[in-house]
Design a protein that fits this description.
It contains 7 helices and 7 strands. By secondary structure, it is an alpha/beta fold. It has a single domain, classed as TIM Barrel, CATH 3.20.20. It has a 4-stranded parallel β-sheet. A 3-stranded parallel β-sheet has the order 5-6-7, with no helix packed on it. The N and C termini lie far apart (55 Å).
Length: 225
């Protein structure tokens, strides 16, 4: 009879934090503002990267968490590969609004620690700004907006709408979080993976520069770059 394996949690692999800089409120790892802003031509999902031969693109994670689980578990295994890409978007760990608050906090931290790690290894990393329920993007529960901790102001950020603005409730929270993000971070450029309906983005178009990208499925079936 096989013996049960023993798994030891060593505290989120502290080796991933060596050399990191932290914001002071929650000691969230910071993804540094780049010296210059790079705007990729297209965004390619991690799980579809073998179907794309151009590395002058943004490798992103706007897909199911299970598709990029290995990146979260063993990010050091992907350093050499990721260094070939022009841009890496920090992981889009799910922030379900019906998930316990602690789970949402955990995935915000995962996003930041992995993004910061690859940046310190030499990758050009653009932070993914993702929020969950209103506790993550307002100060109603915490005295700060935790969804945006570790992302520097006046920088370039990425957001994903694909599959996230389908219902009326989805649109409400995405728009509310978008407004909060723009007010908090005052980004110079916002990359948008997915559609940009006027009902969500219309009143913010003069706040910053938005760059929209078709989702991968649409792009593969004749969408424009």
């Amino acid at each position: 009879m096989a013996k049960n394996k023993i798994y030891i949690d060593d505290g989120f692999d502290p080796i991933l934090l060596q050399g990191a800089r932290f914001e002071p409120l929650m000691e969230m790892p910071i993804i540094e503002k780049p010296r210059h802003f790079t705007i990729p031509s297209i965004m390619v999902p991690f799980s579809e990267r073998s179907k794309n031969t151009d590395v002058n693109v943004a490798l992103m994670f706007y897909e199911k968490d299970e598709n990029f689980a290995e990146v979260l578990k063993q990010p050091e295994s992907f350093i050499e590969e990721f260094l070939k890409y022009k841009v890496i978007i920090s992981p889009d760990c799910s922030l379900y609004r019906d998930a316990p608050f602690q789970n949402q906090l955990l995935n915000i931290y995962r996003r930041q620690i992995i993004g910061s790690f690859f940046q310190r290894k030499g990758c050009y990393v653009i932070p993914n700004a993702r929020w969950g329920d209103e506790r993550t993007y307002t100060t109603k529960t915490l005295p700060f907006k935790i969804a945006f901790l570790g992302i520097e102001k006046h920088s370039i950020v990425s957001v994903g709408t694909y599959g996230c603005i389908q219902s009326k409730d989805d649109k409400y929270h995405f728009k509310a979080g978008l407004e909060s993000m723009l007010q908090t971070l005052e980004p110079e450029i916002v990359l948008v993976y997915g559609s940009m309906p006027d009902s969500v983005f219309g009143e913010y178009l003069n706040c910053t520069r938005f760059v929209q990208y078709d989702n991968w499925t649409k792009l593969r079936h004749g969408g424009e770059r």
